[in-house]
Structure prediction request, 359 residues.
Amino acid sequence: MSLEIKNLIRPHLLGLQPYSSARSEYSGDGILLDANENALGSVCGGSYNRYPDPLQKDLKAKIIHWLNPDLAIDNVFCGNGSDEIIDLLIKAFCRPGEDEIMIFPPVFGMYEKCAQINDVGIHAINLTDDFQLDIPAIKDQINERTKIIFICSPNNPSGNLIHTEEIKIILDSFNGLLVIDEAYIGFSNARSWVDRFQKYPNLVVLRTFSKAWGMAALRLGIGIGAPEVINVLNTIKMPYNINSNTIELVSKALSKPEVLKEMVDKIKAERAILEQQISWMEITKKVYPSEGNYLLVKFQNSLELYGFLKKKGLIVRDRNGQPHCNGCLRITVGSPEENKLLLEALKEYEALFINSKPA
Ligand SMILES: Cc1ncc(COP(=O)(O)O)c(C=O)c1O
Prediction:
């Protein structure tokens, strides 16, 4: 184990062995009378009576084949959504009541929520007003309690990529874990940080099957990192955190990259249409360019517009109140039919808005 990672893990976890489940003790064929399963089958049909592989080895091999063949199985962790991985990272590396994570709002809310649940401090440094890292403030404020820095790129809700060179500055100077959450990278042409993980032992990259792959209900997130990091996550996770259905269906999806590409291309094309059409409207102050499957838009009267859309059954996300997001709604790119309805409703609101202006 490299000295730095060993020194970062919470000390009481260092010698801990993972729970020894039946399927981790024996995973071959045979008459399985070791796990108190129901040998007759499943009431729901199908063969769900057997516990799944606790380490999802076959699935991880397929993920590696898709993501980067230079990865080894012990570089990959499968979580019940990336949400679970965020929680486990904080659990493994941050001492409650002592350590803290660093986040850069406006950003995805689960880093903060998981820290709160684990009684871990939150050091928030707002992104700059062009949604990039405030490097001088970050360098100044990293301290011995800072154990994990979370960067979201493309950033949710602003949609932009965080500059590579600035992430490198942090990676080169920070002794804790740097987590880059690439939940939306599938909608971007940018190079993934997965390709650079070997150079930085303290880098963890999060990916998810919830967005571009369209499999949010199945709950599969993946964490890529050094074996020492992955090992401690495997030690503290629940024994069977990924269910058989998910393993089976994600494995199937991984053999269909052409379907992924087709869906992503469609969503990108729809994103471009929405971006263009909304940016022309009089109610629009700014559409932020996005590399995700959503657009952050600053509107005139955003709260009134939010209510107007909601009454029509069009639900978007109000991001007022988040740093640099006053007047902003985050709009997920929908299907072509949904986007058409959204644009019609926006045009209707625009007409009301224009008519209500003093002549
Ligand atoms: C940036 C970001 N990371 C992670 C997640 C959670 O992903 P998962 O469904 O894999 O838990 C989301 C969900 O919206 C997100 O926006």
